Amino acid sequence: MSKHWAAVVLVLIQLHCCDCCPDLCQCFSAAKVVCSDESMTALPVNISAQVRELIVVTSGVTLLNNCSFRENLRLTKLVVLNSLLKTVSRDAFERLLELQELEISGNYRLSFDVQTFSSLANLTRLLLNNNKISALDAGIFDSLHKLETLQLRGNVLAYLPSILFHRLHKLQELDLSFNHISSVSADVFQNNSLLRSLSLQANSISKIPAGIFTCLDHLEELNLRSNLISNLSAETFPSGLRKLILKKNALAQLPHNVFHKLHHITYLDLSQNQLSKVPSNLFQNLILLKKLDLSENRITALPGSVFNGLFSIKSIHLQKNKLSSLEVNLLKDQHDMEQLHLSMNSLQSIPHGFFDDLDFQCMVQLHGNPWRCDCGLQYFFNWLRYNEKNVEDLTRVYCEAPAVIRGHRLVSVDKEQLVCGKNSSSEFHGSSIPNVTEIPVDDDEGAIRCSLREVKGTASIQCKVTKCTSVTFEALFEFADGNKQESFISEWLAPAGCSNRTV
Predict the structure, then answer these.
(1) How many CB atoms lie within 10 A of CB 194?
(2) pLDDT tens across 212-253, in order?
(3) Cα 138 vs. chain centroid, distance in angstroms?
(4) Among 241, 182, 191, 181, which Cα is nearest to 212's?
(5) What is the DSSP secondary structure assignment for residue 10, as one 8-state letter?
(6) Quick check: 470 and 460 in contact, CB under 8 A?
(7) Chain centroid to CA 357: how far?
(8) Of 150, 230, 234, which Cα lies nearest the Cα of 198?
(9) How far apart are the first and last CA of the chain?
C-alpha cells in the first residue's frame, strides 16, 4: 500500500471513530473509550458494541445502576475513577457478563449491596481503592470465583468478616493497606492458598493470630508495615516468603527462631521498631537474604556472629541506632556486600580489621557518629587511604574528640594527630592498636610534636618536625629502685639549605 493510500485509510478510520464517539469522550480506538468531564452526570449510552474498555475519569456521575449500560454491551474493562459516585446498585453490572477488570476508585463514602458483584463470574481484577468504604457484607465477593486481584486500600474498614474471602480460591493479590483494621481472625485467609502478595500496611493491628498465614504456601510478599505489632511467634510466617516488611511497628524483642523457616527470603525490613537487642542466631538459615534493614531502632550492640551465614547479603542498614561499638568479626561472611549503613550511631572507633572482608566496591555510610580521633582510629584512618571513594559523605565524618581537633573533618586530620594521652587506653576505644602517649615538648613555636609508642616492651619515639631546626634526643631512665640515668641517644641536624623564610 502506498503512503498516500495509507494516509487516506487512517483519516477515514479517524473520521469513523469521531462519528461514533460519545460526547465528552475520546475514542483512542474502536475498542477503547475514555470519558472525562465534571459535567457528565451519567455514563454515555451510545457506546459502540465494539467497545471493550470504558474509562471514566473525574466525572459528575453519582449513581451506577441497571440503566447505566446499554444491552449487548461487551465490556471487558470498566474504570470509574475520581468521580462523585456514591451508590452502586445491586443490578448495576447485570448486563456486563464479560467484564474481567473493574475499578471503582477515588470516590467518597461509597456503598455496595451484597449482590452488587454477583453477576461478574468472569471478573479477575477488582480494585475498590480510596472510596471511604466503612464496611463490607460477608458474602459480597462470593460469586467471584475467578478473581485473582482484589484491592481495598485507602478505605475506612475497621472489621473484616472471617468468611469475607473464603470463596476466592484463585486470589493471588490482596491489598488491605491504609484502613482502620485493628484485628484479624485466625481463619480469615484459610481458603486463599494461592495468595502470593498480601498487604496489611498502615492499619492498627496489634496482634498477629497464631496460624493466620499457615495455609498460604505460595505467599511471597507480606507487608505489615505501620501497625502496632509488639510480639511475633516462631510459627507466624510461611516458609515460602521472599519479602517481609515489618517496618514501623512496636517490636521490642524477637524470638531467636522467628525467621528460621524463611529459607527463600531475600528482603527483610525491621526498621523503625523498638529493638534494643538482636539474638545472635536471629538470621540463621537466611542464606538467600540480600537486603536487611535494622535502621531506626534502639540497638546498642550486635553479637559478632549475628550475620554469619548471610552469604548472599548485598545491603545492611544499621543507621540511626545506638551502636557504641562493633565486633571485629561482624562482617566475616559478607564478601560481596554493596551497602553498609552505620551513620547516626554512637560509634567512636572501628576495630582493627573490621573492613578487611568487604569487597572494594562496597559503599559505607559513617557520618553522624562521635568519632574519637586518637590512636584508636588509626586502623580506620589507614583503611580510608585506599578506600576513600567507598565512604559516602566522607566530608560529614567529624572528630568529636580529643578537644583539640573537635569539629575537624577526619579527612583533614594528619595521621600524626591520632595519638592518645597519658590516661588513654586503646582498649577503651575498642582497638587492638598498642598504647600511644603524646610527649609534651617545650617548644613555644610548636615546631616539634612527638609521641611514644610501646609494643611488647620496646619503646619507640615518633616526632614530626614542621620547621627548619635541629633536634637533640635525650632520654631519662628511672629504675624500680629509684635510680635515674640520663643517656644521650641521637641528634638530628637540619638539612643543608633548610630555611624558615616565607616567600
Answers:
(1) 15
(2) 999 999 999 999 999 999 999 988 999 999 999 999 999 999
(3) 35
(4) 191
(5) H
(6) no
(7) 24
(8) 150
(9) 84
Does residue 382 surpass a pLDDT of 50? yes
CA pair distance 269, 266, nearest whole angstrom: 10
By C-alpha distance, which of 148, 152, 149 is closest to 135?
Answer: 152
Per-residue pLDDT at 13: 41
Sequence-ordered list of residues with C-beta below 8 angstroms from that of 142, at least 6 positions apart, any chain: 118, 167
Q: For residue 92, is pLDDT > 80? A: yes
Give pLDDT, residue 281: 95
Least confident of 42-46, 99-103, 141-145, 214-218: 42-46
DSSP state for residue 320 in the 8-state scheme: S
Q: What is the pLDDT of residue 466?
A: 64
What cell numbers appear for 105 in the block? 476508585
Please, what is the average pLDDT of the chain? 87
Compute the distance between CA of residue 166 and CA of residue 482 in angstroms, rounded to an integer. Answer: 91
Residue 264 has φ and ψ, to the nearest 5°, of -105, 0
Strands 32-35 and 25-29: antiparallel
DSSP letters for 309-363 = T-TT--EEE--SS------TTTTTT-TT--EEE--SS------TTTTTTS-TT-E
Q: Are 375 and 424 in contact (CB under 8 A)?
A: yes
Cα(295)–Cα(310) distance, rounded to whole angstroms? 18
- Percentage of the chain modeled with pLDDT above 70: 81
Q: By C-alpha distance, which of 140, 133, 136 is closest to 108? A: 133
What are the tens digits of pLDDT across the range 416-470? 899 886 544 443 344 444 455 566 665 555 567 676 666 445 566 767 666 677 7
- Grid cell for residue 24: 465528552
Contact yes or no for 189/195 (Cβ under 8 A): yes
Report the alpha-carbon distance of residue 317 to residue 270 in Å, rounded: 10
Say yes or no to pLDDT of 10 above 90.
no
CA of 491: how far to CAs of 62, 252, 374, 453, 488, in Å? 98, 63, 28, 20, 9
